[in-house]
Amino acid sequence: MNRLILPVLFAVLYQVHTLPLHTEEDEYLFKSWMSQYNKKYEINEYYQRLQTFLENKKKIERHNAGNHKFSMGLNQFSDMTFTEFKKSYLLTEPQNCSATRGNHVSNNAPYPDMIDWRTKGHYVTDVKNQGACGSCWTFSTTGCLESVTAIATGKLLQLAEQQLVDCAGAFDNHGCNGGLPSHAFEYIMYNKGLMTEQDYPYKAIQGECRFKPELAAAFVKDVVNITKYDEMGMVDAVARLNPVSLAYEVTSDFMHYRDGIYTSTKCHNTTDMVNHAVLAVGYAEQNGTPYWIVKNSWGTNWGINGYFYIERGKNMCGLAACSSYPLPLV
């Protein structure tokens, strides 16, 4: 009797186990998304990625059905778990980023209600894409130095993130495993210059340092750190002077950000938890909520054409923990 029942039981269990956990519509959506982002998988990985994609889609739909100040959407990261995303795109080395007492001196003058350096002139380069390398700190660094140099000289350069990935290790930076803009500004100052993107192209992988002093195109005279948690100091700098580099903690919902003003109750606001560096290019207010306008380095398909808004005035996710900018040597 048992010999007859067991094969049938195994067959039933196998069928249940192999039944698809998705509909034809799900698979069509996934294949359309794969085509949009030029994704290709081996057959085993295909079903694993499909499952992750559908789980992320449910999370996005649940969030968007709620009462939130920001919305989520499918993007190039929708086939990844947050664990995978962290490993490839965020700072993995602990960052000691705080300036207990910074050297930025605030004016304390009345500030405009809004400012956006993208519309003030040719001062902000296009959004770039760091790829699967935790080099966000280099893009925050180049973005800030590009802007302060353009404000001082009228000439907007495209500067080399790859030089920082390859060469700035002696200043407590770790290539694709993380670093900090303030440390990178120090490197540029003592190294006597940063090359252009054209002369030192980005590879998204750490390699041998190939800096050529004669090709240095941008220079740092001094590094200005804003006192930790002094968010009004950041407002002062962005309102009066230039865009500012900042770091903060990314949690799982942020990878799906689409638009609106990002807020979180899950992220921490302390210096030891920051894991991503970006560039504040302005600030504004919407329906009574003040926010920062921030340039990211995940390409233009993410967020608001590569930008995001994050709530201002609450040290959201630690964004005021370690902000800085360079004084250009021109």
Automatic annotation (TrEMBL):
Residues 30-85 form the Cathepsin propeptide inhibitor domain. It catalyses: Hydrolysis of proteins, acting as an aminopeptidase (notably, cleaving Arg-|-Xaa bonds) as well as an endopeptidase. It is found in: Lysosome. Residues 111-327 form the Peptidase C1A papain C-terminal domain. It comes from the Eukaryota. Residues 1-18 form the signal peptide. InterPro entries: Papain-like_cys_pep_sf (IPR038765), Pept_asp_AS (IPR025661), Pept_cys_AS (IPR000169), Pept_his_AS (IPR025660), Peptidase_C1A (IPR013128), Peptidase_C1A_C (IPR000668), Peptidase_C1A_papain-like (IPR039417), Prot_inhib_I29 (IPR013201). SMART domains: Inhibitor_I29, Pept_C1. The keyword Protease applies. One of its GO terms (cellular component) is lysosome. One of its GO terms (molecular function) is cysteine-type endopeptidase activity. GO terms for biological process: proteolysis. SUPFAM superfamilies: Cysteine proteinases (SSF54001). Keywords: Disulfide bond, Glycoprotein, Hydrolase, Lysosome, Protease, Signal, Thiol protease, Zymogen. Belongs to the peptidase C1 family. Important for the overall degradation of proteins in lysosomes. This is Pro-cathepsin H. It comes from Sinocyclocheilus grahami (Dianchi golden-line fish).
